[in-house]
Amino acid sequence: MILINSAIFLYQVSLGEEAADFITTYGVIPYRFLHLFTSHVTELLTPIFATFLHGGWLHVIGNMLYLYIFGDNVEDILGHGRYLAFYLLCGVVSFLVQILLQANSMVPNIGASGAIAGVLGAYILLFPRARIVTLVPIIIFFTVVDIPF
């Protein structure tokens, strides 16, 4: 998933000025989704496409960091195929909720955050006693904090 997300983001960045059109075409625009999904079958696929698009370097790096830390453990339990299906399902459901909450929005929604939130939820359920060691910046100092679930 990290490789796929990264490759698609690099392609998106390589488009330069045309990246905005790419996002508009493949991102989820709630109003467009609700009004075109019956006549344009590709509109039904935008929640899947949008799961692999990102709004910038920090967006993709942050999402991929979470996926790197938590995703492999969840994938080990689910297996490759079920993990892929779970990841996509979480991404699609997050976009469908966004569509329901902002049905008249013309703003493209993109990103793997919904899919990654699902992976984090699965991690919490599958590894309830896991402890996460986290580096916390405090102004100019850094400290390590052990975060229990």
Summarize this structure as a short list of keywords or feature phrases.
149 residues; mainly alpha; Rhomboid-like fold; two-stranded antiparallel sheet; 64% helix; globular
Explain what this protein looks like in three dimensions.
With 149 residues, the protein is mainly alpha-helical. It has one domain: Rhomboid-like fold. It is 64% helix and 11% strand. It has 7 helices and 2 strands. The chain has helices spanning 2-14, 19-26, 30-36, 41-50, 57-78, 80-101, 113-126; strands spanning 131-138, 141-148. A hairpin with a 2-residue loop joins strand 1 and strand 2. Helix 5 (57-78) packs across helix 6 (80-101). It starts with a helix and ends with a strand.
Query: CATH fold name, please?
Result: Rhomboid-like fold
- In the predicted model, the low-confidence regions spanning at least 5 consecutive residues are none
Molecular shape: globular
- Rounded to an integer in angstroms, the radius of gyration calculated over CA atoms is 17 Å
